[in-house]
Amino acid sequence: MAHTKSQEKRNRQTKTRGARNKAIRSELRTRVKNAVDAAERGDAEAAAEAHRIAQKRIDQAAAKGVLKKNTAARRKRSLARRVGATG
């Protein structure tokens, strides 16, 4: 329970940011899954497009502070290997 107005505001901000971060992380997982699925199907063109979009979303999440810089780099590298190895 908040005792001050400033703490009440911080609680509201935390809830809003948490919801935004959750949405961003959810979309990230979806985009990565789409890229990997396309690569596993053998559809090189769709895999390349999905990979490009997934990398863009990872970069945006890092820029917004949802992911740390090194985490984003690691995920991009992992994704590139998964898409490249199967495609």
In short:
The chain has 87 residues and is mainly alpha-helical.
What structural class is derived from the secondary structure elements? mainly alpha
The value of Rg in angstroms is 17 Å
Q: Uncertain regions: pLDDT < 50 for 5+ in a row?
A: none
Distance between the termini: 53 Å
Total helix count? 3
Query: Approximately how much beta-strand content do the residues carry?
Result: under 5%
Major pleated sheet: none
Mean pLDDT: 94
- What share of the residues lie within helices? over 70%
Total strand segments: 0
Approximate shape:
elongated
* SSE arrangement, N to C: HHH
Commentary on this structure:
With 87 residues, this protein is an all-alpha fold. The protein is 87% helix and 0% strand. It contains 3 helices and no strands. It has helices at residues 5-41, 44-64, 69-86. The radius of gyration is 17 Å and the shape is elongated. The model has no long low-confidence stretch (mean pLDDT 94).
Task: Label this structure with key terms.
0% strand, elongated, 87 residues
Topology of helices and strands:
Blueprint: H1 5-41, H2 44-64, H3 69-86
Helix pairs in contact: 1-2, 1-3, 2-3
